[in-house]
Amino acid sequence: MIDGLLGLTTGFTSLHWSNPVMIAVGGLLLFLGIKKDIEPLLLVPIGFGAILINIPAAGLMEEEGFLRVIYNMGIATELFPLLIFIGIGAMTDFGPLLENPKIFLLGAAGQFGIFLTIGLALLFGFSQLDAVAIGIIGACDGPTAIYVSSKYAPHLLGAVSVAAYSYMSLVPIIQPPIMRALTTQKERTVRMDIETKPASKTARIMFPIVVTIVGGLIAPQGLPLLGTIMLGNLMKESGVVARLSKASENEITNVVTLLLGISIGATMEGKAFLKFQTLLILAFGFLAICLDTVCGVLFGRLMCVMTGGKINPLIGAAGISAYPMAARVVQREGVKYDKHNFLLMHAVGANTGGQVGSVMAAAIMLSILKGIGII
Amino acid sequence: MSNLTFGLTLMVFGMGGTVLALALFSMLMTVLKKLFPFEKEDTKKGNT
After folding, report:
1. CA distance A125 to A44
2. Smallest Cβ distance to B13: which of A111, A112, A368?
3. Are A221 and A369 in contact (CB under 8 A)?
4. Of all residues in chain A, what percent are helix, strand and coil, respectively (each to 5)?
5. How far apart are CA A101 and CA A369, in angstroms?
6. Nearest residue on chain A to B15, judged by CA atoms?
7. Does B18 contact chain A (CB < 8 Å)?
């Protein structure tokens, strides 16, 4: 009889000081998602997952615990981020990028923060693969960050994912001061041509096929990422598999987002998460996104000079993968200095370039790692 | 491989490779647009 009573106290007696703290962190994530509308689709399941895993003695992440089953099914196999990528591809319109292909380069500059942050993380004593997982926060791309960190530094998955999604949602706060600091008032008022040549339906269909083949040949290690986003886009552009395309955009992405979120939350167990290292990862993630913006805007200035003032450097800030948030930030900053300046379509082009750029940067990084025998 | 060599390798080849890959994509897109130019038919099909 007494034993039965003991069973009811196991939860309390097994409580470690870090568990209530992490339950509060889970609560904070729920507050940000529900009350502040910051990435609610991810932060609500992550926050609740963090609460669940910090209630001790339930065994949710033990061999047959339901969170472990979900984790093994979709994170350990890397399946969830790839399924989400199909949905992202189906949602993305590469039209503005195809109309003005040279702004694709801004999508490359917007990824430099990844590589610079890896260097800094190494200087701070992180191991090589941990540094790679931290740097990838700079991709500003949740699924890419999850894919890379779950594969090469699974112990950092919780911190990297939370940093990636939190900072993505903070892009409207992080970017504007950097954009203003690195451009002159004259540059911010540069007007770009609105008349651009649209791409034909055939070109739009060929684009994902060609990018998959060429990108896959350049960086085979990243083909799962590139191939899935391009498959989603091909389904959208072909127009013949509307059911599959819509299912990818909606049902599949929704279900996977829920499972992905809750299993990321499940990695945030107090003893493993509450370390000084986690704070450093959050700091490096912030730095990575700042560096992306700095490099994007500076590259935009370079393109402005090289094109004789035809490119507004502000659109360089949109060369990251936070879509379409970064493009909206550019438009909002642009109209502050010229009320009739229409930068949105160009910024959307740079932003979709950033989506491909983040995937290519990750793919190239993984292929380099394979080449030098690290993975 | 030392951390210094590792970091430098990733930075140089990573940034350089990303720029070159996207420059190549940009060129390929320009070629695609030339090979398959936009026609009014595309507008009629609702693909603007």
Report:
1. 33
2. A368
3. yes
4. 75, 0, 25
5. 29
6. A112
7. yes
Name the token pair of A80: 């969830």
Integer Cα distance of A249 and A255 in angstroms? 11
Axis-axis angle for helices A142-152, A223-238 (nearest 10): 150
Backbone angles phi, psi at A359, to 5 degrees: -65, -45
Q: Which residue of A has its CA nearest to B24?
A: A214
**Tens-digit pLDDT profile for residues A160-184:** 998 998 888 889 999 999 999 999 9
Q: Specify whether the CB–CB gap between A222 and A362 falls below 8 A.
A: yes
Q: Which of A327, A315, A316, A252 is nearest to A113 (CA)?
A: A316
The complex's ipTM works out to: 0.90
pLDDT digits 0-9 by tens, A293-326: 999 999 999 999 999 999 999 999 999 999 889 9
- Chain-chain contact of A372 with B26 (C-beta, under 8 angstroms): no
Q: What is the pLDDT of residue B48?
A: 44
Token output for A333: 């900053």
A 128-147 → B contacts, CB under 8 A? 128, 131-132
What residue type is assigned to position A89 of the chain?
A: G
Distance of alpha carbon A333 from alpha carbon A341, whole angstroms: 10
Question: What tokens were used for A201?
Answer: 């339906």
Q: Do A214 and B33 touch (CB under 8 A)?
A: no
pTM, to two decimals: 0.91
Tokens read off for A215:
């990108």
Neighbours of A16 (CB within 10 A): 14
**DSSP class of residue A156?**
G
Selected for mutation to probe chain A from B15, B20, B22, B47 (highest A CB count within 10 Å) is B22
C-alpha span between A356 and B37 (Å, rounded): 23
A278 neighbors A309 (Cβ within 8 angstroms): no
